[in-house]
Amino acid sequence: MILLLRDRATAEQFEQMLQQHKFYIKTAVDIERRVLVGGGDMHYDCEQVLLGDGSRQENIWAASFMPLVIRFPESITTQVFVDLRQDYPGDWLFVEKFPPV
Q1: Could you tell me if residue 85 is inside a domain?
Q2: Is residue 85 scored above 60 in pLDDT?
């Protein structure tokens, strides 16, 4: 299930977003508006929801993450952060790995 979140996700919302891939969640984030969409089959699905909600393309980044323990939403590991913008100089896909939080 795809959800648009303006506040911290609840445990129930994590469960809903996990329905697609079972153990990780695809997301897109508007870094300017601080809005997250999660739960799609692809990052593109989440990106489209943000664009429909008024986000500008240049402010949208994507990430995939795995909740370590579903019952404790504060326990999240970000695994990949992806720039969806095709006008990025060089490769259109920028991947940065972050250590677990």
Answers
A1: yes
A2: no
d(CA 45, CA 33): 18
Per residue in 42-74, pLDDT (tens digit) is 989 999 999 999 999 989 988 888 776 555 555
**CA–CA dist 2, 25 (Å, integer):** 10
Instruction: Give 14-47 pLDDT, tens digit per residue.
Output: 899 999 888 889 999 999 999 999 998 998 999 9
Query: Could you tell me the residue range of the domain that residue 44 belongs to?
Result: 3-96
SS3 state of residue 52: helix
Closest by CA to 42, choosing from 84, 7, 87, 99, is 84
- Does the residue 20 lie in any domain? yes
